[in-house]
Design a protein that fits this description.
The protein has a five-stranded mixed beta sheet with strand order 2-1-5-3-4. The protein contains three helices and five strands; from the N terminus they run ββαβααββ. Helix content is about 15%, strand content about 20%. The N and C termini lie far apart (about 30 Å). InterPro entries: 2Fe-2S_ferredoxin-like_sf (IPR036010), 2Fe-2S_ferredoxin-type (IPR001041), Adrenodoxin-like (IPR001055), Adrenodoxin_Fe-S_BS (IPR018298), Beta-grasp_dom_sf (IPR012675). Belongs to the adrenodoxin/putidaredoxin family. Pfam families: Fer2.
Amino acid sequence: MTKITYVTSSGERIETDGQNGSTVMETAIMNAVPGIVAECGGACTCATCHVYIDDAWRETVGGPSMMEEDMLDFAFDVKDSSRLSCQIKVRDALDGLVVHVPTRQG
């Protein structure tokens, strides 16, 4: 299991165990992380699983694909650290990952 910490917009830290091969979004949904809506269920056709990758993890996580960048246009308050959590596969290299949930989803 890969440890992932979600920091809600109110500052609450929710520590989870993610199953390798699943996504950061699926892990959030399975752990009822507030603010991760995931309306499209992970199909990368909305922006309701938008997160900010903690600066310490940005290089390890990597940047968005072109399709993901297009969908981020529909997110609110997009930053350089913005990603759609449905597009981040959980893997051993992400053990300890910290993501921040925005105050509002697209």
